[in-house]
Amino acid sequence: MKRYCLVYVILAGSWISLGLLQAVAQQSSGIPVHMVVTVEAQHGSVPPEITSRDVMVYEGHDRDQVLDWVPMQGDHAALDLFVLLDDSSNTSLGSQLEDLRQFILAQPSTTQIGVAYMRDGIARIEQNLTSDHAQAAKALRLPAGDAGINASPYFALSDLVKRWPASSARRQILMVTDGIDRYWGSLPPDPYVDAAVADAQRAGILVSVIYTPGEGHDAHSYWRTTWGQNFLAQVADETGGESYGIGFYGPPVSFSPYLDNLSRRLNRQYLLTFAAKPEKKAGMQRVRLQTEVPNAELVGANQVYVPAAPQ
Predict the structure, then answer these.
(1) Where are the domains of the chain?
(2) What distances in angstroms separate CA 259 from CA 83, 168, 175, one per listed residue?
(3) Rounded to two decimals, what is the model's pTM?
(4) What ranges make up the beta strands (E) of 13-119?
(5) What is the CATH number assigned to the segment(s) 75-266?
(6) Of 13-17, 39-43, 116-120, 163-167, where does the model show the most confidence?
Protein backbone atom coordinates (compact mmCIF):
# COMPACT_ATOMS: atom_id res chain seq x y z
CA MET A 1 0.00 0.00 0.00
CA LYS A 2 1.34 3.40 -0.96
CA ARG A 3 1.61 6.14 1.64
CA TYR A 4 1.23 9.84 0.93
CA CYS A 5 2.82 12.70 2.78
CA LEU A 6 0.16 15.32 3.54
CA VAL A 7 1.63 18.52 2.09
CA TYR A 8 -0.35 21.63 1.21
CA VAL A 9 0.08 24.02 -1.67
CA ILE A 10 -1.83 27.11 -2.71
CA LEU A 11 -3.80 26.53 -5.91
CA ALA A 12 -6.04 29.30 -7.28
CA GLY A 13 -6.18 30.99 -3.87
CA SER A 14 -7.01 27.73 -2.03
CA TRP A 15 -5.19 25.08 0.01
CA ILE A 16 -5.09 21.75 -1.78
CA SER A 17 -3.69 18.46 -0.41
CA LEU A 18 -1.07 16.82 -2.59
CA GLY A 19 -2.12 13.51 -1.05
CA LEU A 20 -5.63 14.09 -2.36
CA LEU A 21 -4.25 14.98 -5.77
CA GLN A 22 -2.43 11.65 -5.98
CA ALA A 23 -5.31 9.62 -4.59
CA VAL A 24 -7.85 11.13 -6.96
CA ALA A 25 -5.54 10.74 -9.93
CA GLN A 26 -5.58 7.00 -9.30
CA GLN A 27 -9.31 6.70 -8.63
CA SER A 28 -10.88 9.08 -11.10
CA SER A 29 -10.22 11.69 -13.76
CA GLY A 30 -11.15 14.52 -11.40
CA ILE A 31 -9.06 17.24 -9.80
CA PRO A 32 -9.64 18.12 -6.12
CA VAL A 33 -11.35 21.49 -5.76
CA HIS A 34 -12.77 22.90 -2.60
CA MET A 35 -15.39 25.46 -1.66
CA VAL A 36 -17.02 26.81 1.48
CA VAL A 37 -20.62 25.65 1.87
CA THR A 38 -23.25 26.93 4.30
CA VAL A 39 -25.92 24.55 5.58
CA GLU A 40 -29.29 26.27 5.92
CA ALA A 41 -32.52 25.05 7.49
CA GLN A 42 -35.53 25.28 5.18
CA HIS A 43 -37.85 25.50 8.20
CA GLY A 44 -36.84 26.75 11.62
CA SER A 45 -33.47 28.02 12.75
CA VAL A 46 -31.41 24.86 13.32
CA PRO A 47 -30.47 22.71 10.31
CA PRO A 48 -29.97 18.95 10.70
CA GLU A 49 -26.54 17.36 10.79
CA ILE A 50 -25.01 16.80 7.35
CA THR A 51 -22.28 14.25 6.64
CA SER A 52 -20.17 13.76 3.52
CA ARG A 53 -22.51 10.95 2.43
CA ASP A 54 -25.39 13.44 2.35
CA VAL A 55 -23.65 15.86 -0.04
CA MET A 56 -24.12 15.69 -3.81
CA VAL A 57 -22.15 17.85 -6.27
CA TYR A 58 -23.10 18.10 -9.94
CA GLU A 59 -21.43 19.57 -13.00
CA GLY A 60 -24.29 19.61 -15.45
CA HIS A 61 -25.85 16.12 -15.28
CA ASP A 62 -22.63 14.52 -14.02
CA ARG A 63 -22.23 13.83 -10.32
CA ASP A 64 -18.76 14.46 -8.88
CA GLN A 65 -17.09 12.44 -6.16
CA VAL A 66 -17.12 14.08 -2.71
CA LEU A 67 -13.65 13.73 -1.19
CA ASP A 68 -14.01 15.58 2.11
CA TRP A 69 -16.53 17.51 4.18
CA VAL A 70 -15.00 19.32 7.16
CA PRO A 71 -16.92 21.48 9.67
CA MET A 72 -15.24 24.88 9.88
CA GLN A 73 -15.02 24.77 13.64
CA GLY A 74 -12.32 24.08 16.21
CA ASP A 75 -8.95 23.73 14.46
CA HIS A 76 -10.65 24.62 11.14
CA ALA A 77 -12.53 27.72 12.35
CA ALA A 78 -10.10 30.36 11.05
CA LEU A 79 -11.91 33.18 9.23
CA ASP A 80 -10.70 36.39 7.56
CA LEU A 81 -13.60 38.82 7.28
CA PHE A 82 -13.60 42.26 5.66
CA VAL A 83 -16.37 44.76 6.36
CA LEU A 84 -16.62 46.84 3.16
CA LEU A 85 -18.73 50.00 3.42
CA ASP A 86 -19.75 52.47 0.72
CA ASP A 87 -18.44 56.00 1.31
CA SER A 88 -21.28 57.34 -0.86
CA SER A 89 -23.91 55.96 1.53
CA ASN A 90 -26.39 58.29 3.17
CA THR A 91 -25.15 59.42 6.57
CA SER A 92 -28.15 57.63 8.08
CA LEU A 93 -25.75 54.67 8.05
CA GLY A 94 -24.33 56.25 11.18
CA SER A 95 -27.26 54.91 13.17
CA GLN A 96 -26.17 51.36 12.23
CA LEU A 97 -22.49 51.68 13.15
CA GLU A 98 -23.05 50.56 16.74
CA ASP A 99 -24.70 47.35 15.48
CA LEU A 100 -21.67 46.74 13.27
CA ARG A 101 -19.31 47.43 16.18
CA GLN A 102 -21.09 44.95 18.39
CA PHE A 103 -21.01 42.37 15.60
CA ILE A 104 -17.25 42.81 15.23
CA LEU A 105 -16.63 42.62 18.98
CA ALA A 106 -18.74 39.45 19.27
CA GLN A 107 -16.69 37.46 16.75
CA PRO A 108 -14.55 34.60 18.10
CA SER A 109 -10.78 34.85 18.50
CA THR A 110 -10.35 32.65 15.41
CA THR A 111 -11.70 35.50 13.24
CA GLN A 112 -9.54 38.29 11.86
CA ILE A 113 -11.46 41.40 10.81
CA GLY A 114 -10.60 44.25 8.48
CA VAL A 115 -12.49 47.44 7.58
CA ALA A 116 -12.48 49.19 4.20
CA TYR A 117 -14.50 51.94 2.48
CA MET A 118 -15.47 52.08 -1.20
CA ARG A 119 -14.12 55.32 -2.65
CA ASP A 120 -12.89 56.36 -6.10
CA GLY A 121 -13.38 52.84 -7.44
CA ILE A 122 -11.10 51.14 -4.91
CA ALA A 123 -11.36 49.65 -1.45
CA ARG A 124 -9.55 52.06 0.88
CA ILE A 125 -8.33 50.05 3.85
CA GLU A 126 -9.07 51.73 7.19
CA GLN A 127 -7.93 48.69 9.19
CA ASN A 128 -6.05 45.67 7.89
CA LEU A 129 -7.10 42.23 9.05
CA THR A 130 -6.51 41.93 12.78
CA SER A 131 -7.47 39.65 15.63
CA ASP A 132 -7.80 42.79 17.80
CA HIS A 133 -11.54 43.21 17.36
CA ALA A 134 -11.66 46.39 19.43
CA GLN A 135 -9.14 47.95 17.05
CA ALA A 136 -11.20 46.89 14.04
CA ALA A 137 -14.39 48.29 15.58
CA LYS A 138 -12.68 51.68 16.06
CA ALA A 139 -12.04 51.88 12.31
CA LEU A 140 -15.76 52.27 11.57
CA ARG A 141 -16.74 55.87 10.76
CA LEU A 142 -19.51 57.87 9.14
CA PRO A 143 -19.54 57.68 5.33
CA ALA A 144 -18.65 60.82 3.38
CA GLY A 145 -22.23 60.94 2.06
CA ASP A 146 -21.23 62.24 -1.39
CA ALA A 147 -23.03 60.56 -4.31
CA GLY A 148 -20.11 61.14 -6.69
CA ILE A 149 -17.42 59.71 -4.48
CA ASN A 150 -17.88 56.08 -5.59
CA ALA A 151 -18.96 55.40 -9.17
CA SER A 152 -19.48 51.66 -8.76
CA PRO A 153 -19.37 49.48 -5.65
CA TYR A 154 -18.36 46.58 -7.88
CA PHE A 155 -15.07 48.26 -8.81
CA ALA A 156 -14.20 48.41 -5.12
CA LEU A 157 -15.27 44.81 -4.53
CA SER A 158 -13.04 43.55 -7.34
CA ASP A 159 -10.19 45.71 -6.06
CA LEU A 160 -10.40 44.24 -2.55
CA VAL A 161 -10.61 40.67 -3.84
CA LYS A 162 -7.62 41.07 -6.17
CA ARG A 163 -5.41 42.64 -3.48
CA TRP A 164 -6.29 40.08 -0.82
CA PRO A 165 -3.47 37.54 -0.36
CA ALA A 166 -4.38 33.85 -0.44
CA SER A 167 -4.83 32.28 2.96
CA SER A 168 -5.56 28.93 4.57
CA ALA A 169 -8.47 30.63 6.40
CA ARG A 170 -11.97 31.16 5.02
CA ARG A 171 -12.19 34.55 3.31
CA GLN A 172 -15.47 36.44 3.36
CA ILE A 173 -16.76 39.98 2.83
CA LEU A 174 -19.68 41.84 4.35
CA MET A 175 -20.56 44.55 1.83
CA VAL A 176 -22.76 47.51 2.94
CA THR A 177 -24.02 49.66 0.05
CA ASP A 178 -27.04 50.59 -2.07
CA GLY A 179 -25.67 48.45 -4.92
CA ILE A 180 -26.29 51.15 -7.54
CA ASP A 181 -23.72 51.13 -10.32
CA ARG A 182 -23.57 54.81 -11.28
CA TYR A 183 -20.87 54.10 -13.84
CA TRP A 184 -22.77 51.48 -15.85
CA GLY A 185 -26.44 52.27 -15.27
CA SER A 186 -29.37 50.05 -14.41
CA LEU A 187 -30.08 47.59 -17.20
CA PRO A 188 -28.65 44.10 -16.84
CA PRO A 189 -26.39 42.44 -17.56
CA ASP A 190 -23.91 44.72 -15.80
CA PRO A 191 -20.35 43.72 -16.83
CA TYR A 192 -18.87 45.14 -13.62
CA VAL A 193 -21.20 43.11 -11.43
CA ASP A 194 -20.36 40.00 -13.45
CA ALA A 195 -16.62 40.75 -13.22
CA ALA A 196 -16.77 41.25 -9.43
CA VAL A 197 -18.67 37.97 -9.03
CA ALA A 198 -16.13 36.11 -11.19
CA ASP A 199 -13.22 37.60 -9.24
CA ALA A 200 -14.75 36.52 -5.91
CA GLN A 201 -15.60 33.03 -7.20
CA ARG A 202 -12.10 32.48 -8.55
CA ALA A 203 -10.63 33.51 -5.18
CA GLY A 204 -13.15 31.40 -3.23
CA ILE A 205 -14.43 34.46 -1.34
CA LEU A 206 -18.04 34.54 -0.12
CA VAL A 207 -19.76 37.94 -0.24
CA SER A 208 -22.75 38.83 1.93
CA VAL A 209 -24.48 42.17 1.46
CA ILE A 210 -26.63 44.58 3.44
CA TYR A 211 -28.60 47.23 1.56
CA THR A 212 -28.35 50.78 2.86
CA PRO A 213 -29.48 53.91 0.92
CA GLY A 214 -27.03 56.09 -0.93
CA GLU A 215 -27.03 59.83 -1.58
CA GLY A 216 -28.28 61.96 -4.46
CA HIS A 217 -31.13 61.56 -6.94
CA ASP A 218 -30.47 57.85 -7.52
CA ALA A 219 -31.12 57.16 -3.84
CA HIS A 220 -34.84 57.92 -4.27
CA SER A 221 -35.24 56.53 -7.79
CA TYR A 222 -37.35 53.38 -7.61
CA TRP A 223 -35.77 52.17 -10.86
CA ARG A 224 -32.18 52.61 -9.70
CA THR A 225 -32.69 51.30 -6.15
CA THR A 226 -34.55 48.27 -7.54
CA TRP A 227 -31.67 47.28 -9.78
CA GLY A 228 -29.12 48.15 -7.12
CA GLN A 229 -30.71 45.60 -4.79
CA ASN A 230 -31.06 43.09 -7.62
CA PHE A 231 -27.35 43.38 -8.35
CA LEU A 232 -26.50 42.93 -4.67
CA ALA A 233 -28.66 39.81 -4.53
CA GLN A 234 -26.83 38.47 -7.59
CA VAL A 235 -23.43 38.99 -5.95
CA ALA A 236 -24.52 37.21 -2.78
CA ASP A 237 -26.31 34.34 -4.52
CA GLU A 238 -23.54 33.57 -6.98
CA THR A 239 -20.67 33.72 -4.46
CA GLY A 240 -22.45 31.68 -1.76
CA GLY A 241 -23.20 34.58 0.58
CA GLU A 242 -26.48 36.07 1.81
CA SER A 243 -28.37 39.24 0.84
CA TYR A 244 -30.12 41.34 3.50
CA GLY A 245 -32.62 44.17 3.06
CA ILE A 246 -36.27 45.08 3.43
CA GLY A 247 -37.11 45.55 -0.21
CA PHE A 248 -37.92 49.01 -1.44
CA TYR A 249 -39.17 50.58 1.77
CA GLY A 250 -36.06 52.50 2.74
CA PRO A 251 -33.27 51.73 5.20
CA PRO A 252 -33.68 48.96 7.77
CA VAL A 253 -34.45 50.06 11.31
CA SER A 254 -31.56 47.98 12.61
CA PHE A 255 -28.79 45.82 11.18
CA SER A 256 -28.88 43.58 14.26
CA PRO A 257 -31.21 40.87 12.87
CA TYR A 258 -29.09 40.63 9.72
CA LEU A 259 -25.82 40.45 11.65
CA ASP A 260 -27.21 37.84 14.03
CA ASN A 261 -28.22 35.74 11.03
CA LEU A 262 -24.79 36.17 9.47
CA SER A 263 -23.12 35.03 12.70
CA ARG A 264 -25.24 31.87 12.68
CA ARG A 265 -24.33 31.22 9.05
CA LEU A 266 -20.62 31.51 9.83
CA ASN A 267 -21.05 28.79 12.45
CA ARG A 268 -22.71 26.43 9.94
CA GLN A 269 -20.07 26.35 7.26
CA TYR A 270 -18.11 23.40 5.90
CA LEU A 271 -15.11 22.98 3.64
CA LEU A 272 -16.24 20.77 0.76
CA THR A 273 -13.60 19.06 -1.38
CA PHE A 274 -14.75 17.26 -4.51
CA ALA A 275 -13.25 15.82 -7.69
CA ALA A 276 -14.03 18.32 -10.44
CA LYS A 277 -13.81 17.40 -14.10
CA PRO A 278 -10.95 19.37 -15.68
CA GLU A 279 -10.93 20.85 -19.16
CA LYS A 280 -7.93 21.41 -21.39
CA LYS A 281 -7.72 24.97 -20.10
CA ALA A 282 -8.13 26.14 -16.53
CA GLY A 283 -11.28 28.14 -15.90
CA MET A 284 -14.58 28.57 -14.10
CA GLN A 285 -17.05 25.70 -14.13
CA ARG A 286 -20.65 25.71 -12.93
CA VAL A 287 -21.57 23.43 -10.04
CA ARG A 288 -24.80 22.56 -8.26
CA LEU A 289 -25.09 21.35 -4.67
CA GLN A 290 -27.85 19.11 -3.41
CA THR A 291 -28.83 17.01 -0.39
CA GLU A 292 -31.75 14.72 0.28
CA VAL A 293 -31.66 15.33 4.04
CA PRO A 294 -35.03 16.81 5.07
CA ASN A 295 -35.11 20.47 6.16
CA ALA A 296 -31.60 21.15 4.86
CA GLU A 297 -30.21 23.17 1.98
CA LEU A 298 -26.60 23.53 0.83
CA VAL A 299 -25.58 27.04 -0.21
CA GLY A 300 -22.36 27.78 -2.07
CA ALA A 301 -20.97 29.56 -5.11
CA ASN A 302 -22.50 28.51 -8.43
CA GLN A 303 -19.08 28.40 -10.10
CA VAL A 304 -15.61 27.23 -9.02
CA TYR A 305 -12.17 27.61 -10.52
CA VAL A 306 -10.87 24.29 -11.87
CA PRO A 307 -7.21 23.87 -12.92
CA ALA A 308 -6.45 22.46 -16.35
CA ALA A 309 -6.27 18.72 -16.90
CA PRO A 310 -2.74 17.32 -16.42
CA GLN A 311 -0.88 16.91 -19.70
Answers:
(1) 8-73+269-306, 75-266
(2) 12, 24, 12
(3) 0.89
(4) 14-17, 31-41, 56-59, 62-71, 79-86, 111-119
(5) 3.40.50.410
(6) 116-120
